[in-house]
Amino acid sequence: MSQTHVVTVVDPSTQQAEADWQLSVEWITLRIRWFGLIVGYLVVNTLSPVEHRGALNGILCVGAGYALLDLVWHWRGEVFLSRFPLFISLMEAFFIGLLCYFDKGIDSFFRYYYFLSLLVCAIRYSPFVAYSTFAMHATSYSMLVFTLTSATLDQVGTLVLMIVFMGWTTWASTSLTILLRETGRKLTALNRNLEDRIARRTRDLQQSQALLIQGEKQAAFGLLAAGIAHEVGNPLAAISSLVQLMNRKKLEPEMHERLGLVDEQLLRIQRTLRELIEFSRPGLQQITRFDVHDVINNALNIAKYYKRKKGKTITTRFAEELPQVSAVRDQILQVFLNLILNAMDATSEGGTIEIETRFVESSLLISFRDNGRGIAEEEREKLFEPYFTTKSTGTGLGLFICRNILTAMNGEIRLQESLLGRTTFVVMLPVLPEYESLTV
Prior knowledge:
Number of domains: 3
Oligomer: single chain
Strand order of the largest sheet: 2-4-5-7-6
Shape: rod-shaped
Order of helices and strands: HHHHHHHEHEEHEEHHEE
Number of helices: 11
Radius of gyration: 42 Å
């Protein structure tokens, strides 16, 4: 026969709230007890029968000793005898009953201690304990009648009224406590939700600030790169003109060959500078339709100047007749370039990087696969968080910005797999309905 075990998971914050409630109530209880003891000493030594003052003071001393132990436990952050509430109620019923017996019986001033005890019990414990305490106190007070040789009608009426008032006090205190606890739980839940919302808003603000700072850095770099390219481009143009003029003169064939090589290298430098200026120019935020293969090739042309490109092979497998994509072209270029550079950083010399495109269910899927070292399992969930990086010189904003760009256009970027020697990132770009008929 199989057995089903039910495991109850308690929220730590709920446990802490309950502990705080118990300590707060305990502090109220201590003040009520010490107030009752002080008033009791005054009443005993001023109004009680002289022949019973010794016994009454002794009983109060016992109560003071218990209250002192309770105070010590409270200073330690604990509640004295917290696991035995009914035992405490039984002691209090016996304690108050003795005070009434040695004082003036059912007419004793100490009969009001029953109400203080019921009030404290209703605040501290469950309704079951509170009503059980009421039963003990009603029994304790009723037994005082049996100590009388003959009970008068007024004394019986006093007994009945006391029991009725004790019952009403128990009900009212219990109902109020339930209401207070329920209100406290709701306030705690609202406070927790508010803290979560504040944490989310703070995180969103930090991410927005990160994007703003990164954008400002990229804009500054673009201006610097464009300025350098312009300043270098002018002398290169002059040098190229001089080389071409010299090449037109009658010189030895070997000299013409060398001048031709110089001119080719100058043209190569000028072409690189034009690409740098093109890339650093502020991108237009206008949505246009474009061929995703052109953007990938553009990103590859820029990435070929990366210092870690040397010794690595990049292959492309492009699907034919893919539909065009509607998006901000420069932003998609930024996404592709970031993934290509990350793949270069992850692979060692001799490594391979493969880029593949395909059309699946109204979306273009672009896969970036490399045979690098892979990504540790504990790092995968943090890949798209701001400022998280596995590189010693990384900013931790690349993949975070890529995700934000694609999310804004209803696209997606995800880590499909990451093993030793095989890591694949997949970018999903939505396609407009009018182009869905164009498939591979």
